[in-house]
Amino acid sequence: GFSPQIQFADQKQEFNKRPSKIGRRSLSRSISQSSTDSYSSAASYTDSSDDETSPRDKQQKNSKGSSDFCVKNIKQAEFGRREIEIAEQEMPALMALRKRAQGEKPLAGAKIVGCTHITAQTAVLMETLGALGAQCRWAACNIYSTLNEVAAALAESGFPVFAWKGESEDDFWWCIDRCVNVEGWQPNMILDDGGDLTHWIYKKYPNMFKKIKGIVEESVTGVHRLYQLSKAGKLCVPAMNVNDSVTKQKFDNLYCCRESILDGLKRTTDMMFGGKQVVVCGYGEVGKGCCAALKAMGSIVYVTEIDPICALQACMDGFRLVKLNEVIRQVDIVITCTGNKNVVTREHLDRMKNSCIVCNMGHSNTEIDVASLRTPELTWERVRSQVDHVIWPDGKRIVLLAEGRLLNLSCSTVPTFVLSITATTQALALIELYNAPEGRYKQDVYLLPKKMDEYVASLHLPTFDAHLTELTDEQAKYLGLNKNGPFKPNYYR
């Protein structure tokens, strides 16, 4: 892999050569420190100063003397705190919820156990839940996505966090267990991303559900697992499906992909988009976002689609609707956004032109048949992190990004503002379930009420200095609406 250490080696000597006056000593030390650790560089999170001790075997304490956490290195807390402060600037709605909570604490008495990606953005959510009165314990839902310095900052400020980047499978479940299984502490709410935490409690501590008021789940996979439990009659508490709320779907899927597709492609390949021929498979929310960005850069965009409604939308937006077979020989980039499997087959890969770029923006790594490329006659060359050249016997090569996994999370970052919308929706879902009177929610999976979706959106409007128009009493009566919403029927998407 690429080590961020290398590029700063010369600088480090520079810093050390400079005569440092006594007063400046601490400053110069901190500059050289942060350069060698290189937290600002995109490759920062590999932390190449690893001592190979597992965090599980280290005794660490935060400045208050607590050791109820397990992170890579508590000394990185200061860096993490800075990243959290930057994220706060782009998460206005969560900060607005905190302001409101100075009076009443809607989550007072809530004991939330959480399992999500641990990034600066989630940290803002966790600290908001704390400000609203909740006690939290947290683990990571993905073995690679934790930012070690952010986990350290959270542990330093008193959150029991159990997570580090590059956990083993065994570590992963150990961390979840450390969050749940604590003497004298019993969770009464679950915030999950992917359903692993919920699954673990079902398997190991089913009695806990007697005290749990509800589950909030934000991912497609996790929601799917909840519906399965519900169908089997095994869901014993109400659950909130945040993934399918309008604010999550439209924003996280459409606008987020519109901004991150070019970023992921540029960072991995430095390619130019003007005049390139691109085929985007699937014209759902993700496909729409990708197409819009590529078209704006001057690419020639083709779309494949199975649904006549989405297909007609693609045509109306000015894209050529084709079958993959018709354009596979001429396109420069292939992007999958279907959530399906085997959309790009070995046969397609064989017919691609030299140096065609192949990547996936869909949920899982099933869309491109990567397994079919692992055969003796093809040569794989790792060009750099997340970029492979696959070379055919005649010398033709294709450029495969992130081994067919999700391009934007693997190769670039996701805009904080979008995550603010998702995180606010999660916070409101927790408040709603926690405060709901006995019997309002049965043991089933619920969508967030439209009123909440509208409230989340309204909290983000001040960022744009946007001014909403209010209905007059007469207008409201004419439309048959309450002046304060909800403005759309529940089925509106």
Automatic annotation (TrEMBL):
Annotated pathway: Amino-acid biosynthesis; L-homocysteine biosynthesis; L-homocysteine from S-adenosyl-L-homocysteine: step 1/1
Organism: Grallaria varia (variegated antpitta)
SMART domains, A to Z: AdoHcyase, AdoHcyase_NAD
Chain's gene name: Ahcyl2
Annotated binding of NAD(+), by residue: G284, E285, V286, G287, K288, G289, E305, N408
Pfam families: AdoHcyase (PF05221), AdoHcyase_NAD (PF00670)
The protein's name in its UniProt record: Adenosylhomocysteinase
Cofactor: NAD(+)
UniProt-listed PROSITE patterns: ADOHCYASE_1, ADOHCYASE_2
Region (Disordered): 1-67
Keyword NAD: yes
Keywords from the UniProt entry: Hydrolase, NAD, One-carbon metabolism
